[in-house]
Design brief:
about 400 residues, alpha/beta, 4-stranded mixed sheet, 15 strands
Length: about 400
């Protein structure tokens, strides 16, 4: 590990540049892409790597996001390591093909830059795009910063292509906040990354004429159910694979990842659950409150699919109240998607903390430290009150 650590280079990069760099080092066989703000820069930068001869990737500029995913599926089914990237309405335009990629067990890795869905038209960050696709059968990994986007993309290739998994993966980062913000990123050497991801050998390539096969057949009542069960079992198996690959990556980089990250949870009596870039701001607030003697902590969800229910229950085992933060709304009247899934997981826990849901930051609305402090203080009050739960609140919205 020491040799790999010495080989790392610290470079100032935006999140989009970090993602494009990871793609260059992975060197997929095919990238099919269509531009959409704020993701455009990823494929634009990658296209320059192709034109400059830095990678041997076949780059296909297609006419829509639906076509981008269709071409990526076709290339991957043929036996190529194929990737694309998108945001917001572009992801929604892929909707039909997301299910096809997962149902065909095609191991595509796709960076997604989180952006609000229209209407009204908005190009800034919230999680309504990927949360809308949370049940499409894709593994979902959320990144707090540019470093995590880089690291998560590299690990995702190994996870998706593992023979026990063979599922597509979305690796996300918050639009503009991470995608266009510049940070220091520790980069592995190109050859280290290529050795880590290895050569791609899809076990069922469509172009293997010695072993002909059918891709995407009609299966009615006789086999469809079994196919869906196999898909669900692959998602369950991915949990062990994600852990093993995270350990392998830690030995290379010195950076250890899990399903959740616990921040100053030792001795905490109340906490927030977050994902994405908000975790960085929340950690700053936790540091301030801890210095003031407050018994607060933070749990960041990194892997949203498969959902880390047992890991969350363990992380929140000693908590009296928890605020669960959603940068999207399910419009179900039951709270946001992170809230609903966390509460469902906690139903199985021996200790069930009181829960309050915070819908925040829609359409790129800033989540300032003062607002996170407000949420912490409300969760603290909930911990000592007679209330069963805190309901659903909209944090930082004008009345």
């Amino acid at each position: 590990m020491a040799m790999a650590l010495e080989a790392q280079k610290t470079t100032a990069l935006t999140g989009n540049e970090a993602a494009a760099t990871a793609l260059r080092q992975i060197e997929p066989d095919v990238v099919a892409a269509y531009p959409i703000t704020p993701q455009t820069e990823i494929v634009q930068l990658f296209s320059t790597f192709v034109s400059d001869g830095l990678v041997k990737t076949e780059f296909a500029a297609v006419e829509s996001e639906h076509s981008a995913m269709s071409a990526t599926i076709g290339a991957a089914a043929a036996g190529a390591r194929a990737m694309t990237a998108t945001s917001s309405n572009g992801l929604a335009f892929m909707w039909e093909m997301l299910y096809i990629a997962a149902g065909l067990r095609i191991p595509i890795v796709m960076p997604v830059v989180n952006r609000a869905l229209s209407a009204p038209i908005n190009i800034h960050c919230d999680h309504s795009d990927t949360m809308g696709a949370r049940d499409a059968g894709w593994i979902q990994i959320y990144s707090e910063n540019a470093q995590e986007m880089y690291d998560n993309l590299i690990q995702a290739v190994r996870i998706a292509e593992h023979p026990e998994v063979l599922l597509p993966i979305m690796v996300t980062m918050d639009g503009f906040i991470i995608s266009h913000g510049m940070e220091n990123v520790e980069l592995l050497q190109d050859q280290v990354v290529r050795d880590f991801v290895g050569e791609y050998h899809f076990p069922y390539p469509l172009l293997d004429i010695e072993h002909p096969k059918t891709i995407g057949p009609l299966t009615l009542q006789d086999f469809y159910f079994e196919h869906k069960r196999e898909q669900a079992e692959a998602m369950q198996r991915s949990k062990a694979v994600i852990t093993v690959i995270a350990d392998d990556f830690a030995r290379l980089s010195g950076r250890q990842y899990g399903f959740v990250e616990c921040y100053k949870m030792k001795g905490a009596k109340y906490a927030l659950v977050v994902l994405g870039s908000t975790a960085g701001t929340a950690k700053y607030v936790v540091d301030e409150l801890r210095q003031e003697g407050e018994q607060c902590g933070l749990v960041k969800i990194r892997v949203f699919r498969p959902f880390p229910g047992p890991e969350l229950c363990k992380a929140l085992a000693d908590i009296k109240a928890v605020g669960i933060m959603d940068r999207s709304d399910s419009f179900s009247t039951q709270g946001g998607p992170v809230f609903a899934e966390t509460k469902a997981a906690l139903y199985q826990a021996s200790n069930q903390p009181k829960c309050v849901n915070y819908i925040y930051g829609l359409g790129g609305r800033d989540i300032e430290p003062s607002l996170i402090r407000q949420a912490f203080m409300e969760v603290k009050d909930l911990a000592t009150s007679n209330a069963v739960g805190g309901g659903i609140r909209h944090l930082g919205v004008r009345e």
